[in-house]
Design brief:
It is a single chain. The chain has nine helices and 14 strands. It has about 290 residues and is an alpha/beta fold. The protein folds into two domains: about 70 residues, no CATH class; about 210 residues, Rossmann fold (3-Layer(aba) Sandwich). The strands form two sheets. Strands 4, 5, 6, 7, 8, 9, 10, 11, 12 and 13 form a ten-stranded mixed beta sheet that branches. A hairpin with a 2-residue loop joins strand 12 and strand 13. The longest helix is centred in the first third of the chain and has 14 residues.
Length: about 290
């Protein structure tokens, strides 16, 4: 019996999904395939969950799910791509998981060709299903980004990589271990491989633990990736940043631009800026047992 969870991610309901204390969730128990389930939803007048360019995403009920970091990175990517008139070419989403980041960027830049890379078999299936469900073509590379031999170079690489240190207490869930802890993708090996697969002047967008910023700067420089833009994410005003969003470009000589900091909470609720980011991404989550 499949156990499915629906979350509507729009406006105030969307905020409740991100706040477990105010969770707004519809539970459906049904033993049918993902695609059949989607048709079932439409047939029974739940199609108001999916309006406009909203992205429908299947996620594991007991595994790693995308979080606010991905939404913030998506917005950061769009802001930095605004200065380019014609966004096209090959996009690689490294460690695609359920596929959210690459799908969002491709949805909003339809001249990009989406490529995804994922090591976990369960997420490989979800990446493919989510792309099909949202009518976005993708080319999935199965395996570790660090070990794969790619048949092309890429214009843009994006990633929300695992960045927790190996010496912290880890989850016993193997899927969560791979998605969260940098054992499977050490920072230097990630940056080295990205530099190898990017075209000259290619763009690399990622987010990381802000406490490791000095190492990020050093390693990007070592592998000829020049930081063009940074944005710091703070839980709230007067609190230290916990996340840094990074845009680097291969063999670039541009000067660094630091964007205004992103504050997540104000008076116990999301700030207006964060609410606008969620509205822009407009994602709807369907949780399933896999």
């Amino acid at each position: 019996m499949a156990y499915v969870t629906f979350c509507n991610m729009k406006n105030s309901i969307k905020k409740k999904c991100y706040d477990q204390k105010k969770g707004y969730i519809i539970y459906i128990k049904i033993n049918i395939s993902y695609i059949t389930l989607f048709k079932y939803i439409i047939r029974y007048n739940l199609k108001n969950f999916y309006e406009g360019d909203s992205l429908v995403l299947y996620q594991p009920n007991n595994g790693y799910c995308y979080n606010s970091d991905t939404h913030f990175l998506y917005n950061f990517i769009l802001e930095n791509l605004k200065k380019f008139k014609n966004i096209n070419g090959e996009l690689l989403d490294i460690g695609s998981g359920s596929g959210i980041l690459g799908l969002l960027v491709t949805r909003d830049n339809d001249k990009l060709n989406l490529n995804q890379c994922e090591i976990q078999k369960s997420f490989q299936e979800l990446s493919i299903k989510n792309a099909k469900c949202n009518n976005i073509e993708t080319n999935l590379y199965k395996g570790s980004f660090l070990d794969l031999e790619f048949d092309k170079e890429f214009d843009i690489c994006v990633s929300n990589p695992p960045f927790y240190h190996t010496n912290v207490i880890k989850s016993e869930n193997e899927s969560l271990k791979i998605a969260r802890y940098n054992d499977s993708m050490p920072l230097e090996k990630l940056i080295q491989k990205v530099s190898k697969v990017l075209k000259n002047s290619g763009k690399f967008f990622f987010c990381y633990d802000v406490k490791q910023l000095s190492e990020i700067i050093r390693l990007l420089g070592d592998y000829k990736l020049n930081i063009e833009s940074l944005q710091f994410v703070h839980p709230k005003k007067n609190k230290d940043a916990t996340l840094v969003l990074v845009y680097a470009r291969k063999n670039s000589k541009s000067l660094l631009k630091v964007l205004e900091p992103l504050l997540v909470f104000e008076n116990g609720d999301f700030t207006n800026e964060v609410q606008k980011i969620y509205e822009k991404s407009s994602t709807h989550s369907i949780k399933v047992e896999i």
